[in-house]
């Protein structure tokens, strides 16, 4: 019935999370992965790469006119990034809350940015900001065959399906 259908489609929601170059440098990859695992989300894609400028310019297309844009691209290509796709109920909005405010000075303690960063130009992590944005970013960073469909044996305990 309709409620089950809505629940199932919500469980398949996906978002793009990236550990930015400062997060990799500071050995925060494992910690960030752990937060999403512990919350109950399912990892369906993960890779480490030096972000190509072409991909970064598409990823941050909306910000291309901002004064900080050149520094943003420089920052994002200053070292490898770890790009992930996480799946689960309400993952887009919940992961934004877990990541915290764009400006780490405003991000609450307990959020990733609130706990691990000081300045907006080095804010450790990226999370898609909407369902449409997530779809666009996942297609930008991943090939279809790099995303894993797998069944978790504890799905009924953690992801409310
Ligand atoms: P978000 O990452 O929280 O979605 P956006 O407004 O989409 O925030 O900005 C993308 C990224 O651009 C931020 O995470 C941050 O790295 C960088 N950025 C945003 N605003 C500023 C700024 O005022 N100065 C420097 N960098 C900024
Ligand atoms: Mg954004």
From TrEMBL:
**Species, as recorded:** Scleropages formosus
The name on file for this protein is: Nucleoside diphosphate kinase
Portion of the parent chain present: 50 to 210 of 210
**Gene transcribed to yield this protein:** NME4
Catalytic residues?
126
Record field: catalytic activity: a ribonucleoside 5'-diphosphate + ATP = a ribonucleoside 5'-triphosphate + ADP; a 2'-deoxyribonucleoside 5'-diphosphate + ATP = a 2'-deoxyribonucleoside 5'-triphosphate + ADP
The record's GO molecular-function terms, alphabetically, read: ATP binding; metal ion binding; nucleoside diphosphate kinase activity
Is the Nucleotide-binding keyword given for this protein?
yes
What range(s) does the Nucleoside diphosphate kinase-like domain occupy? 12-149
UniProt main location, coarse:
other
Lipid bilayer topology: Peripheral membrane protein
Highest classification ranks of the organism: Eukaryota, Metazoa, Chordata, Craniata, Vertebrata
| Cellular compartment(s) | Cell projection; Mitochondrion intermembrane space; Mitochondrion matrix
């Amino acid at each position: 019935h309709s409620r089950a259908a809505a629940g199932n489609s919500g469980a398949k929601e996906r978002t793009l999370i990236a550990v930015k170059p400062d997060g990799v440098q500071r050995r925060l990859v494992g910690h960030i992965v752990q937060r999403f695992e512990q919350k109950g989300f399912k990892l369906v894609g993960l890779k480490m790469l030096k972000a190509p400028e072409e991909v970064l310019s598409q990823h941050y297309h909306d910000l291309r006119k901002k004064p900080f844009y050149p520094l943003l691209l420089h920052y994002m290509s200053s070292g490898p990034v770890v790009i992930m796709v996480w799946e689960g109920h309400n993952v887009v909005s919940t992961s934004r809350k877990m990541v915290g405010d764009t400006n780490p000075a405003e991000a609450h303690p307990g959020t990733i940015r609130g706990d691990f960063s000081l300045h907006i130009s080095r804010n450790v992590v990226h999370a898609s900001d909407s369902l449409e944005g997530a779809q666009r970013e996942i297609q930008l960073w991943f090939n279809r065959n790099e995303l894993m469909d797998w069944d978790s044996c504890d799905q009924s305990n953690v992801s409310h399906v």
